[in-house]
Design a protein that fits this description.
Blueprint lengths: L1 E8 L5 H10 L4 E5 L5 H6 L1 H19 L14 H25 L3 E11 L2 E6 L4 E12 L3 E3 L12 E2 L1 H4 L8 E5 L3 H12 L3 E5 L11 H13 L3 E3 L3 E8 L2 E8 L2 E7 L1 E4 L3 E3 L32 E3 L10 H15 L13 E3 L4 E6 L2 H6 L4 E7 L4 H5 L6 E7 L5 E8 L2 H13 L4 H6 L9 H11 L9
Parallel strand pairs: 1-2, 1-5, 2-3, 5-16, 7-14, 8-9, 8-14, 9-10
Antiparallel strand pairs: 3-4, 4-5, 6-15, 11-12, 12-13, 17-18, 18-21, 19-20, 20-21
Helix pairs in contact: 1-8, 3-4, 3-6
C-alpha cells in the first residue's frame, strides 16, 4: 500500500486546491480523480459556459452597436469553430491544474476511488487494476455534485440534455425548452437565445431564480421576454413525447395542460451531492437527508481524520466556496489554525444582464429582525453605463438603520460579477453605508454605482432623486 500524509478524493475546484495547499504546507499528498482534473467547473460548468456566454454577449452587442454609429453586418456564429475554441480554453485551464499539482508535489491518481476505512482508499485505475493508498493525517472527500435527472425526462444526449451536453452543442436548436428557471437553465438558455433559438423557460415555482433578490430577477426576466422568449412560472413539466420533427413537452398550470414544440429540451433543475457509493456510509460518516456530508467549521466529519469540502458538504454549491474550504481543510490537516469563519459567500449568475449578490436580501434581513433601508441606484443614471450602452439594472445596498452596517448588496447589470467583490469586502469588514458612500470612487466607472447606492440608503445620493 502506498503511504501519504493526506489523500484528496476528487480533483475539482475544492479537491485540487486542497491538494495544492497541502503540498505547499510540506505534506505528501495524492489527489484521486476519475474523470478530468478541474471537475465540473473547469470541464463542463463554470469555464466553458462563461466562454460561450462571452460570445453570446458579443453577438448581442454587435446587433445593437449601430445605435452608436458603428455598423457591423453579417454576424454569423460558426458553432463548430466556437466549440473547438471553447475546448481549447478548457484544455488550457485543466492543463494548468495538472501543472500546479505536479509543481507542488502532489501525485495524481486517475481512477475511481472508494473509501475502505478512515485512512484508506482503493482506486480502480483506468486500466482496471486496483491500487490502495493510505493517509496518515487526513482523508478529504471532495467528490462534488452531479446533475439531477427528472423521471420521464432522462437525458439522451441529443433531444433531451443536461448542462454537460448543453455547453457542447454543435448545432443551435431553433426551439429550446429549458425545464428549470435556476442559474444553469437561465445562463445557458440565454446563450442559445442570443444565437437565435426560440427560448421557453418552464419553472415550477412562482419566480425564476428562487432565493435571489426579486427586483434583480425581474430585470433578467424582462430581457428574456424582450428578445421574444417565453417564461412560464408556476408551471410543471409533466412529460415529453419524441416525434419525427423534435420533442413535444407537455406542461400544466392550474390543471390546464399545454403542449410546447421543441428541437431540444434542456433539463436544468439543479445539482445533487455525490456522497453515495464512495464508501462513506460504510465507515459511519453522517450524511443528511439531502445527501450532504455533515461537517463542522474545520471541514471535519463525525469520523476522525475524514474531512469533506465543496458541493458534497453543503450549500452554497459554488466553486469559490469549495476552493476556500479546500484551503481550510488543508491547513487544519497540516496543524495550522484555520476555520470556515466567513460572513458571506457571493453568488453570481451570468445571465444578460448579470446578477451578483452578497449578504442578505431585504426579505432575509427583515426576517432576522433588522429594520432596514435599501438604497437603489440605476445604471441608467450612471455615465459609464450610458457611454457603453448597457443601462439595464441597478445596484441595491441593504443597510441596518440602527447601526448603519451594510447587510447585503445586490447588483443586476453590466460587470456585476466583477463589482460584487467590493460588496464582499464591505460585508466582511463590517463596513457601514457611510463608509462606502464616503469612499471616493473613480469617475467614470461602473463602481460608482455602489457609492451612489450606499448614499441613497442614507438619503443623500447625488445623481438620483432620494426617496
Amino acid at each position: 500500500m502506498d503511504q501519504f500524509d493526506a489523500i484528496v478524493l476528487g480533483g475539482g475546484p475544492g479537491g485540487y486546491v486542497c491538494a495544492i495547499r497541502l503540498g505547499q504546507l510540506g505534506l505528501k499528498v495524492a489527489c484521486i480523480e476519475e474523470e478530468e482534473y478541474g471537475g465540473v467547473c473547469l470541464n463542463w460548468g463554470c469555464i466553458p459556459s462563461k466562454a460561450l456566454i462571452a460570445n453570446a454577449h458579443f453577438v448581442e452587442k454587435a446587433r445593437h452597436i449601430s445605435d452608436s454609429g458603428i455598423t457591423v453586418s453579417d454576424v454569423k456564429v460558426d458553432v463548430d469553430k466556437m466549440q473547438d475554441w471553447k475546448g481549447g480554453v478548457v484544455k488550457k485551464m485543466t492543463s494548468g491544474v495538472r501543472s500546479l499539482l505536479k509543481a507542488n508535489g502532489g501525485e495524481m491518481i486517475e481512477g475511481r476511488g472508494k473509501v475502505v476505512d478512515p485512512k484508506t482508499v482503493e482506486v480502480t485505475l483506468k486500466s482496471g487494476e486496483k491500487r490502495r493508498v493510505s493517509a496518515s493525517k487526513g482523508l478529504v472527500i471532495a467528490t462534488g455534485s452531479a446533475t439531477i435527472q427528472v423521471p420521464g425526462f432522462e437525458f439522451d444526449g441529443k433531444q433531451v440534455i443536461g448542462a454537460r451536453e448543453a455547453v457542447s452543442l454543435r448545432q443551435i436548436p431553433k426551439r429550446l425548452v429549458v425545464i428549470g428557471g435556476g442559474v444553469i437553465g437561465l445562463e445557458l438558455g440565454m446563450v442559445y437565445q442570443s444565437f437565435g433559438a426560440q427560448l421557453t423557460v418552464v419553472e415550477l415555482t412562482p419566480s425564476l431564480l428562487p432565493g435571489v433578490d426579486p427586483d434583480c430577477v425581474k430585470i433578467v426576466e424582462k430581457k428574456i421576454e424582450k428578445r421574444g422568449g417565453k417564461v412560464l412560472k408556476n408551471t410543471r413539466a409533466e412529460r415529453l413525447e419524441k416525434t419525427a420533427s423534435g420533442v413535444t413537452v407537455i406542461v400544466s398550470n392550474e390543471g390546464k395542460e399545454q403542449r410546447i414544440e421543441a428541437d431540444v429540451v434542456l433539463v436544468a433543475v439543479g445539482m445533487k451531492p455525490r456522497s453515495r457509493g464512495v464508501g462513506l456510509e460504510e465507515i459511519g460518516v453522517e450524511i443528511d437527508q439531502r445527501g450532504f456530508v455533515k461537517t463542522n467549521e474545520f471541514c471535519e466529519t463525525n469520523v476522525k481524520g475524514v474531512y469533506a469540502i465543496g458541493d458534497v458538504s453543503g450549500q452554497p454549491m459554488l466553486a469559490h466556496k469549495a476552493s476556500k474550504e479546500g484551503e481550510v481543510a488543508a491547513e487544519v490537516i497540516a496543524g495550522h489554525h484555520a476555520a470556515k469563519d466567513w460572513v458571506t459567500v457571493p453568488g453570481i449568475i451570468f445571465t444578460d444582464p448579470e446578477i451578483a449578490t452578497a449578504g442578505l436580501t431585504e426579505e432575509q434581513a427583515k426576517a432576522q429582525g433588522y429594520t432596514i433601508k435599501a438604497g437603489k441606484f440605476p445604471f441608467a443614471a450612471l455615465g459609464r453605463a450610458v457611454s457603453i450602452g448597457e443601462t439595464d439594472g441597478f445596484v441595491k445596498v441593504v443597510t441596518d438603520t440602527k447601526s448603519g452596517r451594510i447587510l447585503g448588496i445586490h447588483i443586476v447589470g453590466p460587470s456585476a460579477s466583477d463589482l460584487i467583490s467590493e460588496a464582499v469586502l464591505a460585508i466582511e469588514t463590517v463596513a457601514t453605508a457611510e463608509d462606502m458612500a464616503l469612499s471616493i470612487h473613480p469617475h467614470p466607472t461602473l463602481g460608482e454605482a455602489l457609492m451612489e447606492a450606499a448614499a441613497a440608503s442614507l438619503g443623500h445620493a447625488i445623481h438620483i432623486v432620494n426617496r
